[in-house]
Design goal:
By secondary structure, the chain is α+β, with helices and mostly antiparallel strands. A hairpin with a 5-residue loop joins β1 and β2. α6 crosses α12. Bound molecules: adenosine-5'-triphosphate and magnesium ion. The site of magnesium ion has 4 residues, from α10.
Length: 390
């Protein structure tokens, strides 16, 4: 036995490789006669190699005659033009079927027409199964569509959220305005009630206490020499009565500073600040207008109450040695600042629950359409600043 030559061995290997390729290979000569018909084509066409070899392709696949694939095959053979026919543009170009053949499911395919070098010119028709790639493509398209849909949903949700946030903010704003109006109204009401009570205290209780005082003084004068015990009791009655009258005055002042309606805000403020400063031994810096200001009653009361609360807080918590008050106005605005050089206020304390002083000051100022600030003073201390339209 003679050994096959190297080229004979290679040719054999080539045929085996061609037969086992996982792509279809057909080679036709210039007359379109089949020269190569590999195993893959056999499997997918049902036509055996022996049956196909040497026969014109169009007799094996009559449906090709005059079609696009046939035209491009002619161009490849005559002019040497290669082509690629993808499944997406040219469905089921060759009558090939998926496996098992009996199911007759047309094969989705990509067809490459590759003119081979050499004369006469042959053409290789290479066929690949495009089903998997196309399935993947379809799945990717579906996923892209789902992604697009979920993106659109997300966008519409964000829009809805923004919209409801806007309406919520609007609602909160509305409610805040309503509450501020209500707070302002209640404060005005309470001021009016206090003023009424103060008037009644003055007119009724004041008259009764004064009448008693006059009578006791009369008794003291008229009864002449009294036993020491009686004289002492009478004197104690007078002293207690005077205390009662003082107390009534203090209560009345707290409810409705009489100075305010008689002398106006500047004088009242000066008196209030001096009294509290003396009580707490504070050095005092006052920047008040020289003349009285023409303010509405509500605005005067607000200025008075804010100053009163700021001073009370300074006395209770600040451990200050100096307090300064600024009251200034221009055509449009009034500015009130009460400053101490004490320990300073921290934010948690300022917002602590069940504390009403700072909240009350804020509400009073907001109800007059103004702005309110608590500021830290360097190096230490607290400044309460209120600005209100005149
Ligand atoms: N001038 C200040 N210096 C230091 N701390 C202050 C000053 N003013 C207020 N504070 C702190 O802020 C807190 C809140 O004050 P706010 O006036 O609201 O309430 P309060 O004085 O404790 O109680 P209320 O005024 O209701 O009787 C105080 O408890 C105190 O700790
Ligand atoms: Mg307070």
């Amino acid at each position: 036995m003679t050994q096959p030559t190297r080229s004979e061995g290679l040719a054999e290997l080539g045929w085996q490789a061609l037969a086992s390729l996982n792509v279809g290979v057909i080679v036709v000569d210039p007359d379109e006669r089949v020269r190569v018909w590999n195993g893959w084509i056999v499997a997918h066409s049902g036509i055996a190699e022996a049956e196909a070899l040497d026969r014109p392709l169009r007799t094996l696949f009559p449906s090709l005659e005059g079609g696009y694939l046939h035209e491009t095959l002619r161009a490849a053979l005559e002019l040497g033009h290669p082509s690629v026919l993808s499944h997406s543009l040219h469905e089921a170009q060759l009558p090939l079927y998926g496996l098992p053949l009996g199911a007759q499911v047309p094969l989705m395919q990509h067809v490459h027409l590759i003119p081979l070098p050499g004369t006469p010119r042959h053409c290789m028709i290479q066929v690949t199964d495009a089903s998997a790639a196309l399935k993947r493509e379809a799945m990717l398209k579906r996923k892209a569509r789902l992604l697009q849909e979920s993106l659109e949903l997300q966008h519409s949700l964000i829009n809805e959220l923004e919209h409801s946030q806007d309406s919520l903010e609007l609602l909160v704003q509305e409610r805040t305005t309503q509450l501020e109006e209500l707070a302002g109204h209640l404060q005005d009401l309470s001021e009016r009630e206090k003023a009424k009570l103060a008037r009644e205290l003055h007119d009724e209780l004041g008259a009764i206490l004064t009448a008693i005082r006059i009578d006791i003084s009369w008794l003291q004068r008229s009864l002449g020499e009294l036993p020491p015990m009686g004289a002492a009791k009478l004197q104690r009655m007078l002293t207690n009565l005077d205390r009662g009258i003082q107390l009534k005055r203090r209560i009345m002042e707290g409810m409705r500073p009489t100075l305010l309606s008689t002398f106006g805000i500047v004088v009242t403020l000066r008196e209030l600040v001096r009294e509290v400063a003396a009580l707490n031994q504070w050095a005092l810096t006052l920047h008040l207008p020289d003349d009285d200001l023409q303010l509405s009653e509500e605005l005067s009361i607000t200025v008075f109450r804010v100053t009163q609360e700021a001073l009370t807080n300074a006395a209770k918590y600040a451990e200050a040695t100096r307090v300064s008050i600024v009251l200034s106005v221009d055509e449009r605005e009034l500015l009130l600042a009460v400053e101490d050089n004490g320990v300073g206020i921290n934010e948690q304390d300022a917002q602590a629950p069940r504390r009403h002083g700072i909240l009350g000051m804020k509400h009073r100022v907001f109800a007059r359409g103004g702005s309110f600030e608590l500021q830290k003073v360097a190096p230490h201390g607290t400044r309460v600043v209120a600005r209100m339209p005149r």
